[in-house]
Amino acid sequence: MTGIPSDEPRHSLYEQLQAAESGGSGGERISRFADLAGGRYACAMAALISLYLLVVVYIYPQEILWLDITTTVVFVAGVVGTCMGYGRRRRASSLGWSKRYSAGFALSVGFFAVGVALLDSAEARPAWFWIPYAALTGLPLLATGLTRNSR
Predict the structure, then answer these.
(1) Measured at the alpha carbon of residue 144, what is the angle toward residues 139 and 148, in degrees to the nearest 5?
(2) CA distance linking residue 41 with residue 25, whole number of Å
(3) Is residue 65 classed exposed, middle or buried when 0-12, 13-18 and 19+ CB atoms within 10 A define those classes?
(4) What is residue 23's predicted lDDT score, i.e. its pLDDT?
(5) What is the mean pLDDT of residues 42-65?
(6) Based on C-alpha coordinates, what's the Rg of the chain?
(7) Which of 8, 30, 125, 145 has the fewest CB within 10 Å, making it most exposed?
């Protein structure tokens, strides 16, 4: 390294990551593991958010303090445990993972917020509406988890 700019073409970070993912069995293995770990993480978060919406719909209105606290603590422990487990197992992230996950998470949280707002407008909580709506709430994160990196 002489400090003189080289004539070698500089590659963008995206091009370098693509080359690493497609270059040999090591890159492919790391990329596949990153896709699977990220997919499991996103699917677990989707399930937690969907189930917590059902808790908010059916458990909270009963106004049983110990049950409200217990379900909230279980939800928070599930989220923290999922995040810590993913952080421990993750070696790399696939291309575009952060953007895909952020978009899926934002949409899921948006659906959750709309669901909570709908609770104020209706006294009845029919299962035929809330169970599919809870599934819809987790769908963006589930789609994120099932979407693999396109090369």
Answers:
(1) 140
(2) 24
(3) exposed
(4) 58
(5) 93
(6) 21
(7) 8
pTM of the prediction?
A: 0.75
Asked if residue 130 lies in contact with residue 16, where contact means CB atoms within 8 angstroms, the answer is: no
Q: Following DSSP, what letter does each residue of the chain receive, concatenated? A: --SSPPSSPPPPHHHHHHHHHHSHHHHHHHHHHHHHHHHHHHHHHHHHHHHHHHHHHHTGGG--HHHHHHHHHHHHHHHHHHHHHHHHH-S---TTHHHHHHHHHHHHHHHHHHHHHHHHH-S---HHHHHHHHHHHHHHHHHHHHPPPP-
Q: What does the alpha-carbon distance between residue 101 and residue 121 come to, in Å, rounded to a whole number?
A: 31
Length of the chain: 151
d(C-alpha 97, C-alpha 53), whole Å: 25
Query: Which residue is listed with tokens 């959750």?
Result: 112
Backbone dihedral angles phi then psi of residue 4, each to the nearest 5 degrees: -90, 130
Q: How many CB atoms lie within 10 A of CB 67?
A: 13
| Residue of higher predicted confidence among 6 and 137 | 137
